[in-house]
Amino acid sequence: MTALTTWSASDPTTTTGSTVDRPEIESVLRALGFRLERWPLAPGLAPDAPAEDVLAAYRDLIEGLVSAEGFVEVDVAALHPTGQPAFAATAAAARAKFLAEHTHADDEVRFFAAGRGVFYLHTRDEARGEEVHAVLCEAGDLLFVPAGTTHWFDMGTEPSFTAVRFFRDPEGWVGDFTGSDLATQFPDFDALAAQADAVTAGA
Ligand SMILES: CSCCC(=O)/C(O)=C/O
Ligand SMILES: [Fe+2]
Ligand code: NI
């Protein structure tokens, strides 16, 4: 279940907004300058399918977006449990890469073909003030985050996700870290995913 949680950037202990209502999530994000859309999931694609199978399964949608938006590079970022003892170290290193607040000179456009992850969007708005919005994305979600947005991403302690990434920069992923420790102050993926699971279980 996709979920949106909001805090004031200065008070990570007090949630100021929390919703799993899809139209509301899309509308709040749109008002802040982000876009959340939904693509139909490709039938029969295994959650841990290799990158080439993911790109093939979504070829038409990917090509449509690439030509509409002028992207020059598309890749797949994926991590799924292997059952091997070495996975814990691989997962911790992958998680750490995106867990500190950063920006990109490129738009951040990500489609979740499988699994989940949380994008934390740090916004400054004249009317709303400085906020952090956590978007728990699930399979089918396509999120657009404009270039220059301060943000971080948490895949959790047991990562399991496949995301197609779209770039305007031929270099692909380039991050500029802000040096802020804001990311350490907010509830992490594990906490937010557990909350969403509790909502799903009670529904
Ligand atoms: C979900 S794709 C991997 C994370 C990523 O590319 C990014 O830029 C996080 O901020
Ligand atoms: Fe990013
Ligand atoms: Ni990023």
Automatic annotation (TrEMBL):
GO MF term set:
acireductone dioxygenase (Ni2+-requiring) activity; acireductone dioxygenase [iron(II)-requiring] activity; iron ion binding; nickel cation binding
Protein EC: 1.13.11.54, 1.13.11.53
Record's cofactor remark? Binds 1 nickel ion per monomer. Binds 1 Fe(2+) cation per monomer.
From the UniProt record, give the pathway where this protein acts.
Amino-acid biosynthesis; L-methionine biosynthesis via salvage pathway; L-methionine from S-methyl-5-thio-alpha-D-ribose 1-phosphate: step 5/6
- Top EC class for this record: oxidoreductase
Sorted alphabetically, the keyword list is: Amino-acid biosynthesis, Dioxygenase, Iron, Metal-binding, Methionine biosynthesis, Nickel, Oxidoreductase
Give the reactions, separated by semicolons, that this protein catalyses.
Answer: 1,2-dihydroxy-5-(methylsulfanyl)pent-1-en-3-one + O2 = 4-methylsulfanyl-2-oxobutanoate + formate + 2 H(+); 1,2-dihydroxy-5-(methylsulfanyl)pent-1-en-3-one + O2 = 3-(methylsulfanyl)propanoate + CO + formate + 2 H(+)
Where is composition skewed (Low complexity) in this entry? 1-16
Pfam families tied to this protein: ARD
Annotated site (May play a role in transmitting local conformational changes), which positions?
D107
Q: Which residues bind Fe(2+)?
A: H102, H104, E108, H151
Q: Which example biological process does GO assign this protein?
A: L-methionine salvage from methylthioadenosine
Q: Where is this region: Disordered?
A: 1-21
List of residues binding Ni(2+): H102, H104, E108, H151
* Known cofactor(s): Ni(2+); Fe(2+)
* Highest taxon of source: Bacteria
**Residues of the site described as Important to generate the dianion:** R110
Q: Where is this site: May play a role in metal incorporation in vivo?
A: E101
Q: Is Metal-binding one of the keywords UniProt gives this record?
A: yes
Look up the signal peptide feature and give its range.
none
Quaternary form?
A: Monomer.
State its role: Catalyzes 2 different reactions between oxygene and the acireductone 1,2-dihydroxy-3-keto-5-methylthiopentene (DHK-MTPene) depending upon the metal bound in the active site. Fe-containing acireductone dioxygenase (Fe-ARD) produces formate and 2-keto-4-methylthiobutyrate (KMTB), the alpha-ketoacid precursor of methionine in the methionine recycle pathway. Ni-containing acireductone dioxygenase (Ni-ARD) produces methylthiopropionate, carbon monoxide and formate, and does not lie on the methionine recycle pathway.
What family does the database annotate?
Belongs to the acireductone dioxygenase (ARD) family.
Protein name, UniProt field: Acireductone dioxygenase
